[in-house]
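Forwarding the complex inputs:
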Amino acid sequence: MAEAVAARTSEMKRILVVDDSSLVRLYYRAALEKSGFTVEQAINGLEAMEKVLSEAFDLVIVDVNMPRMDGLAFIAALRSEADAHIAATPALMISTESERQDMLAATSAGANFYLVKPVSEADLVKHAAVLTGASP
Amino acid sequence: MNELQQQFVTEARELVRQATDDLISLERDSTSAAHIDRVFRAFHTLKGSAGVVELPAMTLLLHAAEDLLTAVRGGSVAANGEIVDLSLACLDQVSRWVDDFEEAAALPADAGEAARSMAERLRTFLPADNAAVVAPAPKVTAPVAKGETADWVVRLLDRSRDKIAEHLRSGTTTLHSIAYEPIPGCFFNGDDPLELMRQVPGLLAFHIEPREPFPPLAELDPYACNLRLQAIAASERDDIFKIFRMVPDQVRIATVPESALPSAPVSAKPAQDASLIHIVLEAQLELLRVTDKPEGLAGRIGAARRTALNALRSGGLTSIADAVERNDAVSDAIEQALAGLTTSTAPDTPRTDTGDRPAERMLRVSEDKIEALVNLAGELIVAKNALAHSVKATGGTGDAALRRDQDAIDRLVIELHGSILQLRMISVAQVFRSFPRLIRDVARQLNKTVNLVTQGENTEADKTIVDRLFEPMVHLVRNAVDHGIETPEQRSAAGKPEQATITIAASRAGDRFHVDVHDDGRGIDPSAIRRRAADKQLLPADELAALTDEHVIDLIFAAGFSTAETISDVSGRGIGMDVVRTAVERMGGRVTLASKVGAGTSVRLDMPMTISMSRIMVVQAGGQSFGISMDAVSETVRLSPDRINRIKNNEGFVLRDQVVPVVSLAELMRLPVNPAAASRLFLIAESGGRTAAFEIDAIGERLEVVLKPMQGLLSGARGYAGTTLLGNGQVLLVLDVKEIMP
Amino acid sequence: MTIRRADDGTIHLEGACPVEDAEPLLQLLLASPKSPVDWSQCQKPHTAVVQVLMAAGAVPTGPCGDGWIAKWL
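Prediction (whole assembly, three chains):
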C-alpha cells in the first residue's frame, strides 16, 4: 500500500507557498520544511499558475492580496484547469480578513480552507498536514 | 413527555410511514434514484430525530440501516426484496419503539440488544469493507457519547470564553446550544427570529450568518429568510424550548457537554486534531455547496474530494477515507464520514427539505382534545333540549324575548355541533397508506405480482368511519390478492399481464362516500358459489336454484361462507366476507359486489360521510331491552303508585302542573307486564308538542350508536327508528318515540 | 416610514423597524450601495431588516440603538 506509506510521512508532500512578501514566504517555508514538507514558492498568482502546470503539488497555500493575479483569481483559475488532477489541488487561503464574507468569497473561488493571519507555526503545520493527508 | 418528545413521536410516525411507502415504490422500481434518495432521506431524518430525543438504540439501528441504504444508493448493493424486507422490518421495530416511547418515555430494556442484533443482520448485506466503516457507530451502552460537539458550538464557546468562564465560576445551569434555522417563508408566518433569540434567558454567545451565500444585492429577496442563528445559553432546555415552541422543526437544542467547556485557565488552544478534521470536512461540504458558478465546478468537486480524503487519512481514518473514495456522490460521502466521526447529538447539517412540505398552515391538535370538544358539543345539544323543555314549562306565556334567545341558541348549538364534527373529517389517505405494504407482503408470500393503484386518497370522511374502514378493507384486499388474483402462470396462460392490478378508489357521492376495491383477477364463478352454498346447506336446494347469478354472488357475504378452496395462511381462518358486511353495516354502510368471470371483481363499500351517531338510552321493559333516543327523553322519574291516577282506562300523573299520560312500554310491545312494584319508573318523553311517561322496568346504559334502518320483514313496521348492533353482538331495537306517542 | 436617507447620503434607521422596512431599505442600498448606515436611533429592527444589512455588507457607522442588537451582532 503505497498510499499508506505516503500517509505516514510528510516528506513526499509538496506544498507551493504563494505570497508576495518574501518575509512571509520565508516564515512559511521554514516552518513547513522543519516538519518535513517539500516547499516551492511563487510571488503571485501568475507565477503560481506556471508552477502548478509544470509540477504536481499536494497543497497550495495562497495569500489573498497579491499584485498581478490575486489569490482568489488564482484559485478560481486553478479550479478551471483542464487537467482534472491539477484542478483538484487542495488550496489553503490565508487572509488578514476574518469577515464571513471574505471566507465565503474564498470558498466560492474554490479554496478548501481558510486561515486568518497571523498564523502560528504550529497552526500552519497542523493544517498543512490535514490538508495534504500527512500525519505530522 | 415534554413537547419535544411529543413532536418526535408525531414526526417519527410520519417518517416511518413515508419510508414504508418509498421502500415499496423502490422495490417496484429498484433503479429509481429518486426513490432511493427519498428512502435514504427518511431514514436519515429519523436517525437524526432519534438522536435529538436521545434514543441510542434506535439511533444505532437506523445508523446501520442508513449504511445499507447508502450502499444501495451507491449501487454496491441491489435493492432486492430481501433488502426491502429487512428495511421494512427495521421500520416495524422503530414503529414499536415509538409506541413504547410514547407510553413510557423510554425504550424497553431489551432495545439495545434488539438494535444490535438487527443492525448485525443489516450489515450482513453490506460489502465486506463497507462494513468496517460502520464500526465507529455510537455505543449503545453509553447514554449517547457526548464527547463530540458541533464545530460551531466549539467556535462560539471559544469566542465567548471569558463570559462562559465567568458563568462557570458562578452559575450551575447547564449550557445549551441553540441552532435555529428559520424556514425561508418564516417572515410571512409573522416570525421574527431575532426577536425569539432576544427572549432566550442567559444568553452567553450568539452568532448569525447566511445559510446560503447571499446573492448579489439586486437579486436579494428581502422577505425570504436566509439566515442561521446560533447561540449558547445558560438556561434550561425546557425554557428555551418554550420560546421556540412554534418552530420546533426549525430549531435544535442540545446540551453542551462539559468536555467542550473551557477549563478554568482558558487557553486559546486551537481545535484538537479530531475536530480539525471535522472542521476541514465541513469546509469541503461548504465548498461543494457553491453551485452557482459553473466554471471550475469539476475542479472544486475534485479538490473537495481530495482534501476530504487527505484530512481523513491524516487522522488515520483510512477505512472511512476508502468509503469516501468509493462513493461518487462526494457531498454524501463526506456527510456520512462526518456522521461516522460524530455522534448524533450534533445538530444535523441543514437539509433543505422544506420544499417537500405542504405550504398549508396546519395546526396539530391531539385527538383527545377534539374528542373532548365533540363530547361537549353533544352535551350542549342535550342541554339545548332541556332548555327548550324549560322554556316551554314557563307556560308559553308569550315571553317573546326568551323564545327568540332560545331559537338563537338552538341554531348556534346546531351549527357549532356541525363545525365540530367537521374537525373530525380526515382523508382516507392514512388508511390507504397501509395497503401498499400489505399487498406487497401478501403477494410475496403467494408468489404473485400485484400492482396497487390508489385513487381519491384525499376523500374525507368522519374519523370514526375512516378508522373503521381499515378492517373491512384489509379483508377485501387480502381476499383479492389471495383468491381473486391468479398466479402469474395462470395469468399469462389466460393472456393477461403477469402483474395483476388492484385498484382502491375512494370517491364522494352526495352525502355518502364510496370505497371501491377492484381486482383484475379471475372473478367469481356463480356456479362455484352455488355448489358451495349447496354443500354448506346455506339455502334449501329449490331456493338456491331460483336465485339469479347476481343474487348467488351475494351469498358470498353469508355467514360461514368462504370461497377459498383451501384455507390459506393469508385470508385467515373462517373469516370471510360476512365480517366485511357486518363491519360496514355497523357504521351505517352497505356492501355490493360485482364480478365477471375471468375479468375480475369489484366490491363497493357505500358509506355515510359522517357517522350519524345517535345517543340512546337502553331501557328494560317486559324482560326485553329497547333503545330510546336521548333526544326525546327529558327526564326519568320514579313515583310511588299512589301518585298515579287512573282516568277511565288510562293512567296518568301530574308533573309540574301538567297531566302526563302513562304508557306501559311492555304493553305497547305486547310483552308480559311485570306486577306493580313499590315504586314505578317512568321515562318522560316529548315529541311533537306532546308529553308522555313511558313506564319501564329499569334503565340501562347510555350509548352512542349508529342506527341501521329496519330491514326485511320489519322494514314497514311502525314505531321503530331502527336497530343497532351492541358490542356483545345483540341486536337492539331502537324505538321511535314520535311514533309511539299516545 | 422609519427608513430615510439624509441629505448627506446616510441611511437612517429610526425607531422600530418592522418587517416592511426591509424592502425600502434594500431599495436605498441598491441605489447607493456605499451609503453609510446609521442605526443609532433604531429599536428592535426586524430580522428581515438586519438580513438586508448583512446581505449588503453594510457596516453601520455606530452601535445600534437597540441594546440587544448592539451587544450581540
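Residues 22-34 of chain A form the longest helix (13 residues).
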